[in-house]
Amino acid sequence: MMSKDTDEIKLIKKAIRGNSTAYGYLIEKHRTYLYKMAFLYTKNEQDALDVVGDTVLKGYLQIKTLKNASLFQTWITRVLINTAHDHRRKALSTLSQEDSAIDSAHASTANQQIPSVEHFDLQTAIETLPDKYRIPILLKYFSGMTVDEIAWTLSIPSGSVKAYLSRGRNELKQKLKEDYLYES
User: Fold this and answer.
1) pTM value?
2) How far apart are CA 174 and CA 151, in angstroms?
3) What is the pLDDT of residues 12-33, one digit of tens each?
4) Residue-range domains of the chain with CATH
């Protein structure tokens, strides 16, 4: 009897050779993971579903570029992150056009609003991190990737991943510490 890993490696190799059924089985196996990662990145159900759908298509079209079958999950995560970046860029360009009209409408009421005290929980604190810290933290602590896998996925050196993780953790500690101090 073969192990799950051996079966998955065989499916990956078939998918690389162009077997769409094998690719479908792989996506089915990883769909929950893909959705969770997309949702952590987009923070919106519909956007996450769009990103996963585009990732599945791009993955299918690019599967022949996968050199090491044992790195399928890392590779598909890289495709997902790149797809999510593309979606974010498109959304930002659309929003920037709409924002100019909205900004002028809200300019008169902005001075009347009283700033509220924000209460940070861990999820909120993570969402406020810059992408270069947030994404490695999500990949490390929510996906269980190693530093080397994160480096490969993001196409950056391992040393940068370690630095981003450290700086991101420090920013999280600071944000959560400030929240605690405000609540006391």
Assistant:
1) 0.68
2) 25
3) 999 999 999 999 999 999 999 9
4) 1-92 (1.10.1740.10), 119-184 (1.10.10.10)
